[in-house]
């Protein structure tokens, strides 16, 4: 008999929380009737609209139920990293590099979009919108392929892939199941995965990872406050007189009520990428 699911959850707490978050977000999206343009990431929304919060919402959002099931199954498989403390990985390694994969893979996607738009003149990439956790999953598959070349990774519970080939085999399999899968998104995850496996970011300690994450969360909160109709209690952003492009963040007092803001017009997506 296999290990009871309760024990597996206890052995993969971070993975279990991530799956719960992605599933909860999917339920909320379905109930709220949200779409790709509401939670996805596009070059236009991030660069022109300064909606930096989409780097996070796009990673943890799935519109299609099939997309969610495929990604969460793959995430459960790569979550074995949490159990590999004896191999130089483990929970801290998993958490720190998951944060790096979430941020850097989508930043790299935007870099690819920038090149396609401004150098190759593919204007459609201004509005191509991507959602999904696959960037991170492909990154972890790549890391495992380098750390455990002789092992195998289970995908969807029945597909056993050699770890060394898993990122590329999964890329092909994903295109068969999800025709709209994002090649650039998956490629970005693979590239960042290689950088992590080559210890490019090894000098980033847990302390600095927490510090960078804290500042990033503050920046994302400010972005939500400035670019959406959502009001965050006790926070107001203003444009500085000395530097109109830089926001000033301050706490609100009882005598200083928040001013109503008009949300930016929605962006028209000309393409959808499931990542």
UniProtKB/TrEMBL annotation:
Family membership noted in the UniProt record: Belongs to the peptidase S54 family.
Record InterPro entries: Peptidase_S54_rhomboid_dom, Rhomboid-like_sf, Rhomboid_protease_S54
Peptidase S54 rhomboid domain mapped to chain residues: 50-201
The protein's name: Peptidase S54 rhomboid domain-containing protein
Record field: transmembrane: 60-81, 93-113, 125-143, 155-176, 183-201
Any one annotated GO CC term: membrane
Keywords for this protein: Membrane, Transmembrane, Transmembrane helix
One Gene Ontology molecular-function label: serine-type endopeptidase activity
Pfam families: Rhomboid
Segment forming the signal sequence: none
Classification via Gene3D superfamilies: Rhomboid-like
Topology with respect to the bilayer: Multi-pass membrane protein
Primary location recorded for the protein, binned into one broad class: membrane
UniProt-annotated stretches for the region Disordered: 252-275
Subcellular location: Membrane
Keyword Transmembrane among UniProt keywords: yes
